[in-house]
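hiii, so i know i said id send this last week but things got crazy w the move. better late than never?? heres the sequnce for the chain we talked about at the cafe, plus the structure i predicted for it. fair warning i was half asleep when i ran it
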Amino acid sequence: MIHSNITNSLDILVNKIEDVKLTIKDEVERRFEEFKDIGKNGDELDLFSELSFCVLTANWRAKGGIKAQKFITKEGFAHYNEEQLISKLREVGHRFPNTRSRYIVENRWIIGSLKNLLQKDISESRRFLVENIKGIGWKEASHFLRNVGIEDVAILDKHILKIMKNYNLVKEVPKPSWTEKKYTDLENQLRVLSKMVEEPLGKLDLYLWYMETGQIDK
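okay and structure toks below
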């Protein structure tokens, strides 16, 4: 009976995603081409800007992160001192301007190595980011990789986890104290859905995000 309920829930979710695809597939494809272009043609400052965006959006909101990224610019992320970054983040209303500014400054050592990092095995690259970059956990590392065009990663934020719970992919929304095993186990649960709708995890995230928010962000 439990298995039947899960199957029925998945079927309903698949149908909803297919309906959404009819409306926004072209836009999703365009957005993902933008992601790939950053990964392929962007310079180290473009990549560091995306990494800093992911540092900023953790426990904040995507729209705010996008606004902050445009306001600070890639040169600002690379060159502003900590006090300047704090001032900029306060101007855009960031919840944690002091902490996030410190993280961004302390993460600058990675500039010059990000292109090379993207050429490695994705699991290895993600693990490296989690272990070595301030303000980056499993969700944020996945977010960065997806935003530079990596398709096979899931961004397990509260919106996606809520959908997973509502459609019986998980029994309850887990607390975001991620270990690698916990994250990849849930990612593999989403991979089942990914195969059913014939979309990679990175694009599936955009469809699920749209279902929850009505937006296609990044």
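btw The CA atoms of residues 61 and 71 lie 15 Å apart. thought thatd interest u
miss u guys!!
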